[in-house]
Amino acid sequence: DSKGIERLETAAQIEQIAEYIASSRENSDPMSHVHVVWYFVGERWQEADLDHVGRLQEMCGVVLVVNKADTRTSEAVDNLRRVIREDLPDAELAVCGDPRGTYNWIMEQCAAGHPNSEHFEVDFKRNRWTCGKEIQMKTDGTWITCDNWGDDRPYGYIDLVNFTLRHLPKMCRESFLAAQRVDLNRKHKLAAAAITAATVAAAAVGASPIPFADFPLLLGIEAGLYVSLVAIYNLPVRTSDDAVAAAVGAAGGVGVSSIAGLGLASCFKLIPGVNLIIMGVNSVVASTTVSLFGIATSVAFSKISRLIAEGEAGEEEIEKIINDSAMKVNGRNEAPENTEAAEREEFLLREIEELGAGDD
After folding, report:
1. CA proximity to 176, closest of 165, 160, 188, 189
2. pTM flag (> 0.70)
3. Average pLDDT in the 301-309 region?
């Protein structure tokens, strides 16, 4: 984060930033390079801004950011966007606002242009407005209404994430996604890939002809998957934290009954002739167990990540989320056998998004 640019020192400050970007490129580690700059636009877009952005674009990617849009009028934001587009038609521009804790989430008009003073119905309990403008009368005498709506959720930040990712080399993208909590969908994709890899490993372990070998190996796979998901969702796990201990216990319990059954099934591997049948059953049960464990943990971690971002992640809330997520996966189906890795990842992504959106 650079010092705010002062008008009287503009040229000197831009050169200092350019020198810093250039010096970062001297490091042999690409992770230390400056790949993209977020250029925050003030109340007005001036010729000097165009010069500064042009100078920075010579060295790295630039994303323009109109921040605190919720404190500006819709007309002011539209005018600013228009002026910027006239100078930079292809600019990556993110208009961001966070109206939580204010009344700025009540728009002056809906997307169809209907003014709030005449047509908005506001629910202050849910911080949500709906446009009730009557559009067309139906045959039963009732009206079709506009039904455009809005709420106090932050906006524009997913655009900012997507624009930024375009400028990052592959090796930096996963670290960037883990460090931010805005675009959970992208994190879900990383989680689905990790679960798929763990599921394949579990199926191989389940097919092992060695009696009782499955149980400790599967626990190891689940533990490794758990650590991977902690990293993907960037959770500040502390082993001494009671809430985290509860989370590990609850998440580990997702597949307890299946694993217990798996341990019992291992006994039959001692019986010649039954071995091949049990190997098939164990392979399916093992992959299903790990898959459901991964889904439940991903759903829980995504919700915990949101709570942390909002400063509301207490021990009771975390434990409740983990337990609820574990209960949700009971009875869920696994991806069909012989499913290709890409198809399995898509299946897991749908499951995580569906269960994760259930309480939103």
Report:
1. 165
2. no
3. 73
